[in-house]
Amino acid sequence: MDTIRLLAIRDTPLSVEEVLGAVGDTAAGGTTIFVGTVRDQDHGKTVTKLSYSAHPSAEAELRRVAEKVAADFPVTALAAVHRVGDLELGDIAVIVAVACPHRGEAFQASRRLIDDLKSEVPIWKHQVFADGTTEWVGACE
What we know:
Elements lengths: L3 E7 L5 H7 L7 E8 L3 E2 L2 E10 L3 H15 L4 E7 L1 E3 L4 E9 L2 H18 L2 E7 L4 E4 L4
Parallel strand pairs: 1-5
Antiparallel strand pairs: 2-7, 3-4, 4-6, 4-8, 5-7, 8-9
Helix pairs in contact: 2-3
């Protein structure tokens, strides 16, 4: 079975259960999951609206990042999904999960996966603040 079990960029709500189910593996002694949600503030300013946009190459870049993590760590299963479109406060924006033989490896691989996703996959966040100002963030949060 393929190590990379689920990769997607979606305009529909994300499911922790789906992602966790995708990485279930009897060879894994440790599974980590990271869930990123829309918060009500950023840089000390109140966020009122938020949307994500993705470049057409985003899924291919997500696969490249996932393949690198799977090559660098003893990953038995990996999944990553990111939401695009308009999101509400509290909505899930991103979920990554990694299963490895041991917990330490799972934590390290999961951290690398979310960090590389944020820095390398072309997904942009547009925030609108209560004071009427806006901000574009170069990659997902």
